[in-house]
Amino acid sequence: MGILKGRSAAVVLFSLLRLCATVSGTAVACADIAVDVQTAVRPLRHFWRSTGFCPPLPHTQADQYDLSRDEQLNLAYVSSVPHGGLEQVRIHWLLELVTAQVVEGVPRYNFTNLDQLIELLWQNGLRPGFELMGSVSNYFTDFEEKQQVAEWRNLVYLAARRYIEKYGLDYVSQWNFETWNEPNNHDFDNITMSIQGFLNYYDACSEGLRDASPTLRFGGPGDSCHSYPHSPYCWALLEHCHNGTNFFTGETGVRLDYIALHKKGGGGSLPILQQEVETVKEIQERFPSFRSLPVYNDEADPLVGWSKPQDWRADVTYAAMVVKVGEQRGNSTIHYALLSNDNAFLSYHPNQFTQRTLTARFQVNNTQPPHVQLLRKPVLTVMGLLALLGETQVFSYIVLEGSATDDTIGVLASTHKSPVPGTSDSWQSAILVYSSKDNHTVPSANHVTLQLSGFSGQKDLVYITYYLDNNSSNPYQLWQSFGSPDYPTAKQFQQLRNLGEPQVRGPLPFPSEGTLTLKVELPVPAVLLVHVCARPKATPEQVNGLRFIAVTKGQVLVVWSDRSVLLGLFCLVVLEISFSPHTFVFFTENLDVCGFYRVRAVDYWGRPGEYSQTVLSGPSGVPLWFR
């Protein structure tokens, strides 16, 4: 008997035609997946485009971590996910980057370090998840003192207004300002924060932001919010926002723009969703006026403890889980606006791959001077596949047979329509299939038949497939085969980087009759994306923002941006980097990285776009000259 797993109330588009058997004593799972791109189901919100991290103790020295060369590299990798696949970095203790000096009883604030971090995020096309937390040179000590509450409001206003004036309201109004992280854990450093003090603090944050601009977004409580009467800070804040008295205005009720929760999985994916549903239901029953508020789970990690080494965090197992956690919310009645994995930390020896991070960090101390190398893990690569999904979810259906269960295989199917005809953008469809048994691997593979239909209305279609599994895209496994060296050689680093990419097949012509059937073997774990593109009228736009980050002698990280380029960049097969020590006559792999660089995009039809601005890089990776 098969298991039907639907994505809408529509009728089943096909019936199961084959029998799954047992091969060599191992149960074989079969899945038929049908997709009809002409049947729209709902808007597809990309609510997973967020990550985060926390600087280590002592928090008063957060600048040494947040502004380090390692973090500069890390944020460059985070921002390398194309098409805004990661947009927000939620960072603890941001206000510890602000220092205060009291002059004649009045605090004078120095925002230099915070300015540098905000500039770094902005330069990388990212924005902060701005938790308003920190003691500011230990100036703030007790939020039951009226003077300190008023001064906190002033500090929040000064910070918000500062960045509005520097970057514009359009940018800052996209930030998610949030309360102190997990107040029920009492991690307030030297600040006395009673429940009443926390409510006073909340009002000061709210009014300070409103003073800067009423369009700024503020929410909380940024907590697990266990069932009442547990998590007293959480429930006190929600009650206060519902019908409490505003510390400053005396009005009843305080604005709450979104509900921020932290629900983790204990090693699994479904428990995250189950906890979210339970808590949101309790909140909405106690406070009916909050039913329309967007819900964030901005620490939706499969397992608590970022530094706890787990082998599954190193490979495609983690990547497939992240996709699965997002897909499970596709049919939820909860108004999800953000689902964040708190995984932008920097790993450390000897757990370079196995901590909850997007990259594997190698602190290479056998060079002069020592340097740092980062490698993309599959969990970062898969964010790029998620970014290829369109803005409309379309009909999909799964029929399972054999040993498969109804949560092992899932699909997200989507379409994208170009808002501006005649450009390098075009009609597209992306179908993302995962095979995941949470943090487990399975020796047998799933036999999957993927049937795509509804494409007859489009012309000049091609498709390309992107594929990840633990055999083809597993730099951790390759590193282990090298003997897990602390300091891989330059050649080994290159081999490891190559395995960080998905396997790519195509572009191939899409059948003219408008239907396509693919038969694939998906082990557990695995992720497959099928990307279908109509030929756009124009060639790719010019790449912009070319810059460099020096890594070590003979190595430079070349960074560019697609953020201001039309969405036609979705249908790109490659971005070509040209280098020459003198002029652009040839491409070289010379270890001398000093010279001229330029980048251009090439689409699925082999058509190149215009080269970027030419930049001359110096020995330290600093641009010396533009043309």
UniProtKB/TrEMBL annotation:
Active site: E182 (proton donor)
SUPFAM superfamilies found in the cross-reference section: (Trans)glycosidases, Glycosyl hydrolase domain
GO molecular function: L-iduronidase activity
Domain Glycosyl hydrolases family 39 N-terminal catalytic: 33-516
Keyword Protease in annotation: no
GO term, biological process aspect, one: carbohydrate metabolic process
Protein name: Alpha-L-iduronidase
Similarity section: Belongs to the glycosyl hydrolase 39 family.
A Pfam cross-reference name: Glyco_hydro_39_C
Keywords: Glycosidase, Hydrolase, Signal
Organism: Scleropages formosus
Domain Alpha-L-iduronidase C-terminal: 545-615
Entries under InterPro entries matching the protein: GH, GH39_as, GH39_C, GH39_cat, Glyco_hydro_39, Glycosyl_Hydrolase_39, Ig-like_fold
Residues making up the signal peptide according to the UniProt record: 1-25
Top-level taxon of origin: Eukaryota
